[in-house]
Design a protein that fits this description.
Blueprint: E1 2-6, E2 11-14, H1 19-42, E3 51-56, E4 59-64, E5 67-71, H2 86-108, E6 117-124, E7 132-140, H3 147-157, H4 161-167
Antiparallel strand pairs: 1-2, 3-4, 4-5, 6-7
Helix pairs in contact: 2-3
């Protein structure tokens, strides 16, 4: 498989796949293409709508406004470890929201956001129900932040939309839609 230009190797980069890997990749790509076509027909490309479709094994394709993200489970848990888990995406959503708010704060105050990183670590809760028990976020600003701006940056970052949602949990309803069987 040609991976395109490779500036460090003076030509194209190539990768080989086993038959099983090629079949799995083909299945995922075909499933994602079908999901994207279906999403366009279902109006899933509108803001505020998300579709999640089974791909293979424990893998699911998430489609939001025509963008796709794949989730899976680690191989140790029966998945094929082809993507992040839904729980990891939850923490990633929080970290990326904090990064967005921190980046906007830096920009608004004339501070460099180049190289901005939000590192996240999480632990699962020990008891039931299964849930994330703790999340630790660390904002790294390579250019630094003046001491007088630190508290304000942390206040802005800690009030991102995802963090606010976790603090004031939304009403969530789950229903079973009638399936049409052929």
């Amino acid at each position: 498989m040609d991976l395109g230009e490779c500036p460090d190797c003076g030509g194209s980069a190539w990768a080989g796949l086993s038959v099983a890997e090629a079949r799995r990749l083909a299945a995922v790509l075909l499933s994602q293409a079908a999901a994207a076509e279906q999403d366009g027909q279902d109006g899933q490309d509108r803001p505020g709508r998300v579709a999640v479709r089974h791909v293979d094994g424990d893998a699911y394709a998430i489609t939001v406004r025509g963008h796709q993200v794949l989730t899976d489970q680690p191989a140790a848990d029966g998945g094929s470890d082809a993507a992040a888990t839904p729980t990891e995406l939850l923490v990633a959503s929080l970290a990326s929201c904090v990064a967005f708010y921190a980046g906007r704060y830096l920009l608004r105050h004339g501070l460099d956001r180049a190289g901005l990183v939000v590192a996240a670590e999480f632990d699962m809760a020990a008891g039931r129900p299964a849930r994330v028990g703790a999340v630790r976020l660390r904002i790294i600003v390579p250019g630094g932040v003046p001491a007088q701006r630190t508290d304000a940056l942390l206040a802005v970052a800690s009030h991102c939309t995802v963090h606010n949602t976790l603090r004031q949990q939304p009403d969530v309803s789950i229903e079973l839609a009638a399936a049409v069987r052929a």
